[in-house]
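Revision sheet: structure tokens.
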Amino acid sequence: MSSVIDRSDGQSFSRTLTNHGLHLQRARTAILQLNVGKLCDLTCAHCHVNAGPKRKEVITRETIDRILNWLARTTIPTVDITGGAPEMAPDFRYLVEELKSMPRIETIIDRCNLTILLEPNYEWTAEFLAANRIKIVASMPCYQPANVKAQRGDGVFESSIRALQLLNRLGYGRQADLTLDLVYNPNGDFLPPDQTELEADYKRELKLNFDIDFNRLYTITNMPIGRFAAWLKHSGRLAAYMDLLVEAFNPASLSGLMCRNTLSVGWRGEVYDCDFNQQLGMQWRNGKPLFLWDLDPVQLLGRTITIGNHCFGCTAGAGSSCGGALV
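Predicted:
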């Protein structure tokens, strides 16, 4: 059970759900999470997307327009833009501006790696996000340089600190309408600590040492897929990590799983239950692969969620989602 993580049949996770009398179905879709591609200025060790500077997968204007047309037929209030570094998509500004013009969209989230804000040709990004009141969810694996260096490379901690200070100067984390949330993920094959306690540590250390303010901290479990799975295999730790996730299964986490209220859409418009399923190629099908514009928005409720053994990552311990701990 613990040695196979990349199967899409979900037999082990499915059996665990059955043993607990549980079943995963979609609730009302509240969030459309759009992965605009795998292009990124960083190559992080924990990245489940395998993003990097040489990736060519990037959303086109045509695909953006088709997604926007579909969204206009729904009541989905939140769009969560991710990548890669989403800001590197050539039509990122167009996407944000079009979303801002849609009256039903209440919240737009940019999942930012922070360093992109300081890169040549992207100096416009921070002010653009602030001007459009975009919520930023920023990756900040630790408040200590050594841990960030191990995950994300030389100089990334220092760049991230400068980017956070820039965002603070623009009002992020300090004004009510400019939300800045940070994301922690473990620097290795272990579960995150208590989210509330770690948030207090982050706020204390970042304020004391760098005068940085932010709103919330999300703790996210490293998923045993992509680049992190490759590291686990190379280190001979894959089976032990899967055992850890399986043994820490928490049935109380299921009600808050992001796959229940989030629709994941890839850079070509393909549809998945979550971003992790997306990276494993577990696309929705109905005799053929389904794209967003193939779906009737009113028929999403109650659909059975496609699961796999990687789902143990979201249900271990306090649970894990794009919004942090679940219990």
